[in-house]
Recover the amino acids of this structure.
């Protein structure tokens, strides 16, 4: 069969990817795991974007990674583009070089990335970060039961895994990393993987995935996400205004997304709402006590509101990632966005802070707002209130703000 190649900016993309690019959020392209439809995409004046995972069926989750197409990225790109570890550490004023020893960040994803450790090594070597390998005890990869028989490989989730591992490395290069791979993207299997991460001693657990809310959410809460003394983060979503689970869980820190840019101010950076960031008022999860005292929240939501905090997620201001497991014609140095970026960033900031054992779920930032950068402009929808519009103090898309050092975590 004839395979056409169409050029987007500097990148040649295979016909498989073009089908996805034509699909604009709800479309379907090519084959995908039974748990979700194939990736969808959208465009901007500068770039096109391909979602690594498609929409998920009830009881399943999709990853929140978005690949940016165009500019200095492409199939087998030989050099990185996008924000690198030094950029992220600068933007969020982080003590990454001196903190994090003795801390472990777990990444929970579905399916297997057979190249995970090797790709992690390429990223860390590129940016002068210390090696993190199975051999030196820094890296560990297990299945959802803690064993070494891995689930089947999946290209979209492999991209997600590479993104997550690289963001932990960028923010907390002294941390140990555990990758727990669920057998599928069902919420029960992903939840089982979270429990395994907790049992293996993780101080923070990042979940860069989500699905639609359901009446089962409070049951999932109790079974999988209720781990006092462990900082559990979850992506708020990439489709704009609207809550997703497990970010809506009362037991996690829900992480929204921003657009991060260099600026000529004292910080050197500025942030606005990323229009794709998820936010909203849960239909099922109760409002935790640390939210019930926040007027901004109680004025618009009587249940769990997301997000709590945020970090960079806009793929137009995305981060550099190395992934060699070719998917949709994309491999090598890529640029990623989505709240799949912000969730592992925040989990790693918790690890840098080193006090997860004494924090109660997502409560800590609410009593330490002075150590956050308040994001006060931008919108992710037309809800008509601060559930989708940035404002001073808490708002839905960015929560209480982004890290300014580790004092908020």
């Amino acid at each position: 069969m004839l395979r056409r190649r169409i050029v987007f900016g500097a990148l040649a993309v295979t016909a498989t990817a073009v089908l996805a690019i034509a699909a604009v959020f709800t479309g379907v392209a090519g084959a995908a795991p039974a748990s979700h439809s194939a990736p969808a995409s959208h465009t901007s004046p500068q770039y096109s974007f391909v979602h690594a995972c498609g929409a998920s069926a009830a009881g399943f989750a999709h990853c929140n990674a978005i690949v940016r197409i165009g500019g200095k990225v492409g199939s087998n790109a030989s050099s990185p583009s996008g924000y690198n570890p030094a950029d992220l550490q600068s933007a969020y004023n982080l003590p990454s070089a001196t903190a994090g020893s003795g801390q472990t960040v777990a990444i929970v994803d579905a399916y297997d990335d057979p190249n995970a450790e090797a790709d992690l090594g390429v990223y860390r070597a590129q940016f002068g970060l210390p090696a993190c390998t199975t051999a030196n005890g820094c890296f560990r990869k297990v299945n959802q039961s803690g064993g070494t028989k891995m689930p089947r490989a999946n290209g979209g989730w492999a991209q997600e895994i590479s993104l997550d591992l690289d963001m932990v490395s960028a923010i907390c290069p002294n941390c140990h990393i555990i990758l727990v791979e669920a057998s599928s993207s069902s919420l029960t299997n992903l939840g089982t993987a979270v429990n395994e991460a907790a049992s293996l001693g993780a101080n923070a657990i990042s979940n860069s995935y989500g699905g639609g809310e359901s009446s089962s959410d409070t049951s999932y809460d109790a079974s999988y996400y209720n781990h006092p003394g462990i900082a559990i983060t979850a992506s708020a979503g990439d489709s704009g205004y609207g809550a997703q689970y497990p970010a809506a869980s009362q037991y996690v820190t829900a992480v929204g997304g921003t657009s991060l840019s260099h600026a000529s101010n004292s910080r050197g950076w500025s942030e606005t709402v990323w229009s794709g960031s998820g936010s909203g008022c849960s239909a099922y999860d109760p409002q935790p006590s640390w939210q019930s005292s926040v007027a901004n929240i109680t004025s618009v939501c009587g249940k769990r509101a997301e997000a709590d905090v945020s970090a960079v997620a806009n793929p137009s201001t995305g981060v550099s990632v190395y992934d060699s497991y070719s998917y949709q014609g994309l491999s090598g140095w890529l640029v990623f966005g989505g709240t799949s970026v912000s969730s592992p960033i925040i989990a790693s900031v918790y690890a840098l802070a080193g006090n997860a054992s004494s924090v109660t779920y997502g409560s800590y930032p609410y009593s330490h707002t002075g150590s956050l950068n308040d994001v006060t402009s931008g919108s992710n929808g037309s809800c008509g209130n601060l559930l989708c519009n940035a404002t001073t103090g808490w708002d839905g898309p960015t929560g209480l703000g982004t890290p300014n050092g580790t004092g908020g975590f």
Notes: The chain has one domain: 84-318+334-403. The longest strand covers residues 253-262. DSSP finds nine helices and 21 strands in the chain.
